[in-house]
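Deliverable D4.2, example record:
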Amino acid sequence: MPCALIINELVSNSLKYAFPNNRQGEIRIRFAQAHDQSLNLVISDDGIGFPSGVSFEKADSLGLQLVRNLTDQLHGKMQYHVERGTEFDIKFRPVANESRN
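Output generated by the structure prediction step:
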């Protein structure tokens, strides 16, 4: 569930902010498992990028706070890049769901 909420929030942000004035662009979602069994979720766009001078870690946006909290819930690490658009790269370990056992 946290992954779905992260994807929803970051794709929604891209749709709202990355492509102003009917600008054309692309949103990419990649979800892969590494050799060490960790999971990697990357959501990126080739839009106008995050505003300069705004720190993702300190942003007051409720949506970005949600992404940070959900990443913490997954015990994950997040990086973001704002060159040629915006990219969020989240790495975490699979979470065992005890209720399924």
